[in-house]
Write a structure and sequence with these properties.
Helices cover about 35% and strands about 25% of the residues of chain A. Chain A is α/β, with parallel strands linked by helices. Chain A has an eight-stranded mixed sheet with strand order 6-7-8-3-9-10-12-11, with helices on both faces. In chain A, strands 2-1-4-5 form a four-stranded antiparallel sheet, covered by helices on one side. In chain A, helix 4 crosses helix 5. The longest helix of chain A has 18 residues. Chain A is globular, with a radius of gyration of 21 Å. Chain A starts with a strand and ends in an 8-residue tail after the last strand. By secondary structure, chain B is an alpha/beta fold. Chain B folds into two domains: about 170 residues, P-loop containing nucleotide triphosphate hydrolases (Rossmann fold, 3-Layer(aba) Sandwich), CATH 3.40.50.300; about 80 residues, no CATH class. In chain B, about 30% of the residues lie in helices and about 20% in strands. The longest helix of chain B is centred in the middle third of the chain and has 18 residues. Chain B is globular, with a radius of gyration of 21 Å. Chain B starts with 5 loop residues before the first strand and ends in a 9-residue tail after the last strand. Classes of the chains: A alpha/beta, B alpha/beta. The interface between A and B is large, with 49 and 49 residues. The complex binds adenosine-5'-triphosphate (ATP) (2 copies) and magnesium ion (MG) (2 copies). The site of one adenosine-5'-triphosphate has 13 residues of chain B, from strand 2 and helix 1. One adenosine-5'-triphosphate binds next to strand 2 and helix 1 of chain B.
């Protein structure tokens, strides 16, 4: 079965004051219909740029896809026109961002924003648009939707705003939902509500999802496949069980070992990954993780390690994965 | 029994709320509404709770950035709750604060060296030469290279800036440090570096911490005891082990159940806590958690439960949890 989305060897660059930076350097991953892919990694590793590249929402003219393919149901979005991309956005691919305020218009009521989105994608008359909007607010668990329709975003709590953003993203029943840190700004009890909502919507609508997060708990709970990114590259890719049970890349291993666990001991030193991520302006010629890696050998600083298959789904970008 | 370093009794911080729909000038934000806690020398008390429950306000009252509305803050036997800024000077040396974003508290136009020297100047400690020696020592303590002194905060990464914030807080050898979400903005791999640093420094200097965060796993890891806060009040307090292994308050139980487990083999179908946290401007009567509590009874809506000892070193404020037998 061919995947719903297949990103292949994607290279995305930005023109900046300090020169050109390569934010994505040969990123590949796949999303199957109805499946959930998680993207995890350090701040600045390229998670959001991956999402923006797929959505055709890179800031113009500074951000450019330089190479690679984004095949959505077989169609290459890299080559698609702006008209075609805006057709796909919202209708076939929906998106939810971290900060719901940026996705909502502060001066329009919730009702207006929802009915406008309905109008954009259907030819319903106004009373029908309102009914559709209320139905979807009900579906995302907003109490008293008729009252909420007359309110403005600032009158709602963060959790409610994120429900509204999800409602807008779902109006056209997209086949793929890209959620970029959808719960990072929320409290854990509200996060649990939103994750629960996303899960049940996914089940009911058969929607695929890309879940971007730095929270390994959210990844473990929601995803079936995981991409681990580091400094613009995919360093490990596999099923959620491959990644958590048998991580092969020293970065993935370090990440999993360094998080405090609820069922772990208190007041013990944590395992750490020393040092920090290299700047995209000043990348080493060899492995990008080498300067922080306990297992590095001189060869690691030579040339970029290639992506190697561990199994037919599990892949890793490390020279030494077989020795570790 | 050790004598506590800090004893907070019935602490309240009520902010006046101006404007609003009916311009009710009398409305109040009950941000901190009757908190009791103690911290012993060299120990960490963790403070966890959802956004807006009053964690930072409590921390700011203890460091006396705010003058509390009511209550007692005994530090080594002296109630500092209402002291004037002049009277507070020796206290300020002894109690320091670390923030989530050190840039907020660091003046970006000063070099790191100047920023670290400032506390000594304010308190009139040492001459130029001895101060600079202290600065070099501080940088070394927090694991930053000596040359950092001549650079500016914006030249550093988030984790390094947090090290600068920690160095500044430690300059005057405090006994108590209030850490307000010190690792919340950091990447996982950097977070563990800073947590280890804080634990090392605690051992080296016998520091006591009030460690504020919303991530229970982080708090539990660094703390000896943990207090859970909800709408301006402490709802439960216990040892780090007991708060996770034997939580008694329904809110603590829900909080723990809501945390996603970094283990894909555990797929829990949890029943999430419904609704949002009520506003601290009009907290519900009775138990402030009763509006969301899956186990609430009629009594919970009318009578506010006291924080009572329910087990050895374990306190809870819930009608459903009986006193220690
Ligand atoms: N508009 C832009 N102009 C220049 N560089 C950019 C731009 N957007 C992103 N970048 C760079 O691309 C890299 C990847 O950024 P991205 O936003 O994808 O990170 P991320 O993984 O989403 O991080 P976070 O966890 O902090 O959200 C970063 O180094 C960033 O500085
Ligand atoms: N200086 C202030 N003036 C008026 N109200 C304030 C002030 N500081 C805080 N508040 C209010 O007091 C309540 C508690 O806020 P506080 O910042 O202590 O919460 P918190 O638990 O630290 O939340 P977070 O996890 O978001 O940091 C909130 O309703 C807040 O709006
Ligand atoms: Mg991002
Ligand atoms: Mg706070």
């Amino acid at each position: 079965m061919s995947p719903l989305l297949s990103v292949q060897e994607l290279v995305t660059e930005f023109e900046t004051d300090e020169g050109r930076v390569r934010a994505l350097d040969g990123v590949s991953f796949e999303v199957t219909a109805g499946g959930t892919l998680g993207i995890v990694g350090e701040s600045g590793c390229g998670k959001s740029v991956s999402a923006l590249s797929v959505m055709g929402l890179l800031p113009k003219p500074n951000g450019q896809i330089q190479a690679g393919q984004i095949l959505f149901k077989g169609e290459d979005l890299v080559a698609a026109s702006n008209e075609r991309l805006s057709q796909i956005r919202g209708a076939e691919i929906g998106m939810v961002f971290q900060e719901p305020m940026t996705a909502l218009n502060p001066v329009h009521t919730i009702g207006r924003q929802l009915t406008e989105a309905v109008a954009l994608h259907t030819d319903q008359a106004i009373p029908e648009q309102i009914a559709t909007a209320i139905a979807i607010l009900n579906r995302v668990g907003i109490p008293e939707p008729e009252i909420r329709m007359t309110e403005y975003p600032h009158q709602l709590s963060g959790g409610m705003r994120q429900r509204i953003v999800i409602a807008i993203a779902l109006i056209c029943q997209p086949e793929l939902l890209i959620a970029d840190e959808p719960t990072t700004a929320l409290d854990v009890t509200i996060q649990a509500q939103i994750l629960d909502l996303i899960r049940s919507l996914q089940r009911d609508l058969g929607m695929a999802m890309i879940m971007i997060t730095h929270d390994l708990g959210v990844i473990a709970e929601t995803c079936d496949t995981v991409v681990v990114m580091y400094a613009g590259q995919v360093v490990e890719y596999g099923s959620v069980f491959d990644i958590f049970d048998a991580p092969k890349h020293p970065y993935t291993q370090g990440l999993l070992r360094s998080i405090p666990r609820l069922d772990g001991p208190s007041k013990q030193p944590l395992d750490i990954i020393p040092g920090m991520v290299p700047s995209l302006h000043d990348l080493p010629p060899g492995c990008r993780f080498a300067n922080r890696c306990a297992h590095q050998i001189p060869d690691c600083s030579g040339a970029q390690p290639a992506v190697e298959p561990v199994t037919n789904v599990h892949q890793v970008r490390c020279l030494r994965w077989q020795d570790l | 029994m050790t004598t506590p370093l800090l004893e907070v009794e019935n602490l309240k911080m009520h902010f006046p709320v101006k404007g609003g729909l009916f311009n009710r000038a009398k409305a109040k934000n009950y941000a901190v509404d009757g908190v009791n806690l103690t911290i012993n020398p060299g120990e960490t008390l963790g403070l966890v709770g959802e956004s807006g429950c009053g964690k930072s306000t409590l921390g700011r009252c203890i460091t006396r950035l705010y003058r509390p509305t009511d209550g007692v803050i005994n530090f080594k036997g002296t109630n500092i709750a209402q002291l004037s800024s002049r009277q507070l000077l020796p206290y300020r040396q002894n109690v320091q604060m670390i923030f989530q974003d050190p840039m907020e508290s660091l003046n970006a136009r000063h070099t790191v060296g100047e920023l670290l020297e400032e506390p000594f100047i304010i308190h009139g400690i040492g001459d130029r030469q001895s101060r600079q020696k202290s600065v070099a020592g501080l940088l070394d303590t927090v694991g930053l290279p000596a040359r950092s002194a001549t650079r500016y905060p914006f030249e550093f990464s988030g984790g390094q800036r947090q090290r600068i914030g920690i160095a500044r807080a430690l300059a005057l050898k405090p006994e108590l440090v209030i850490c307000d979400e010190p690792v919340s903005a950091l990447d996982v791999s950097i977070q563990s570096q800073i947590l280890n640093l804080l634990m090392d420094l605690q051992r080296e200097f016998n520091l006591a911490y009030l460690f504020i965060a919303h991530d229970l796993a982080v708090v539990k890891h660094i703390s000896d005891r943990v207090a859970i806060m909800y709408l301006g009040k402490i709802s439960e307090q216990a040892s780090s082990e007991a708060i996770y292994a034997a939580p008694q308050h329904p809110y603590t139980q829900s909080l723990i159940a809501a945390i996603p487990n970094p283990d894909p083999h555990i797929k829990v179908e949890r029943v999430p806590l419904q609704g949002d946290v009520p506003s601290p401007i009009s907290p519900p009567p009775g138990c402030s958690f009763h509006t969301r509590c899956p186990q609430a009874t009629d009594r919970c809506a009318v009578a506010a439960p006291e924080l009572i000892p329910t087990d050895d070193q374990h306190w809870a404020a819930c009608h459903l949890v009986g006193p220690r037998p």
